[in-house]
From TrEMBL:
Coiled-coil regions, chain positions: none
Signal peptide bounds: 1-16
Keywords: Signal
Pfam families: adh_short_C2 (PF13561)
Descriptive protein name: Uncharacterized protein
């Protein structure tokens, strides 16, 4: 596409002798079109050729017009913007931690960061599952041999978080982005006899673990001027009757993120939340009646897949989101607006 833009620009130059404004207008138009196309291509993970073609177009126009004219500078500016957007999704050399990676939801995010070149650290309680995900991530990495660092850890335990952070420092000495997934959502209501046990366990896994993880990772995030994205669910936005503790913990997480955004903003660390709706591994309802209902009620008319969440996490961790902190990105197909009637 960019090659075509360059050819169009040359045609414009050869036929524009009688109309200098046509030349200017045409070139500027083509430059902007070229920039737009570059942005489009940046969204295509496989669009490696965009770089070469952009340089080709830039080189040809530069040669025709000389290096220091205004059009050259305009094109340079547009190309720089396009490049920075494109490079925004290049995580080569960046260290990205994804926690509680036992969930299928986290798996999509791990794979996408691997595709984008990140050095991953993944952690969860199930060693077998971590090994499986690490293998998949490695296969997807650009070199096919960038294997995630695996740390088997239970983040409700201080010693485990300390060990996790220690291993990150030992192996990489830096941390650019952290994405946390928590997936403890037991059914609970106020009449349950085991209320307090489940309450403590859930708030420990969701709130305490997240607070302590930030406590131990913020120096690294600060050093890298990095970001953290806390993945929660729309239970953080609207209550779920049968999940008392979970539905209390999630808004707690949201508010923690906003506090952290205030506190860490001055240190250049961005902190955001993603709230997900119904996500299944393949977007089908898996025979689950609640998922079937959500699918029917979601404005977009379908369920989400882990990649939908992964793209949000990648965006919030990218330089494209450098002015976004304390935000709540809801990835739910719009179900939040029909949500309270879920169980009716
Ligand atoms: C751990 O992961 C393996 C592989 O995915 C799975 O077969 C096993 O059921 C998991 N164990 C637990 C306790 O969840
Ligand atoms: C409370 O939850 C239990 C399941 O944990 C359920 O059997 C019971 O019907 C619920 N009670 C109310 C009042 O919702």
């Amino acid at each position: 596409m960019l090659k075509l833009a360059a050819i169009a620009a040359l045609v414009c130059i050869t036929s524009a002798g009688l109309n200098p404004f046509g030349l200017m207008g045409g070139l500027v138009h083509n430059a902007l079109t070229g920039a737009n196309q570059a942005v489009h291509q940046s969204l295509d993970i496989a669009g490696k050729h965009a770089d070469i073609q952009t340089h080709l177009a830039y080189g040809i126009i530069g040669k025709v017009l000389g290096e220091n004219n205004i059009i050259h500078k305009v094109l340079g500016g547009a190309n720089q913007a396009a490049h920075s957007v494109k490079n925004s999704r290049d995580f080569t050399g960046k260290v990205v931690l994804v926690t509680l990676s036992n969930s299928g939801l986290a798996e999509g995010t791990i794979k996408l960061f691997s595709i984008l070149g990140a050095n991953l650290v993944i952690t969860g309680t199930n060693a077998t599952h971590l090994a499986e995900i690490a293998q998949l991530a490695q296969q997807q990495s650009p070199t096919h041999n960038n294997k995630p660092l695996r740390v088997v850890a239970d983040l409700t335990k201080t010693a485990d978080i300390e060990r996790l952070v220690g291993e990150i420092v030992y192996k990489f000495g830096r941390l650019d982005a952290m994405i946390t997934f928590a997936n403890s959502y037991p059914l609970l209501n106020i009449t349950d006899t085991n209320l307090i046990d489940v309450w403590d366990q859930t708030l420990r896994a969701d709130l305490r673990a997240t607070a302590e993880l930030f406590h131990l990772t913020y120096p690294l995030l600060e050093k890298a001027r990095g970001s953290a994205t806390v993945v929660a669910t729309i239970a953080g936005v609207a209550p779920v009757a049968v999940e008392l503790a979970y539905s209390t913990a999630k808004p707690g997480i949201q508010h923690m993120v906003k506090n952290l955004a205030l506190e860490l903003g001055a240190k250049g660390v961005r902190v955001n939340t993603i709230n997900v709706g119904a996500i299944t591994p393949d977007g089908t309802n898996l025979g689950n009646p609640v998922c079937a209902l959500i699918k029917k009620k979601a404005p977009l008319g379908h369920l989400g897949v882990p990649l939908d969440v992964a793209k949000g996490a990648v965006f919030l961790s990218s330089s494209d989101a450098k002015y976004i902190t304390g935000a709540n990105l809801v990835i739910d197909g719009g179900i939040i607006y029909n949500y309270p009637s879920y169980f009716k």
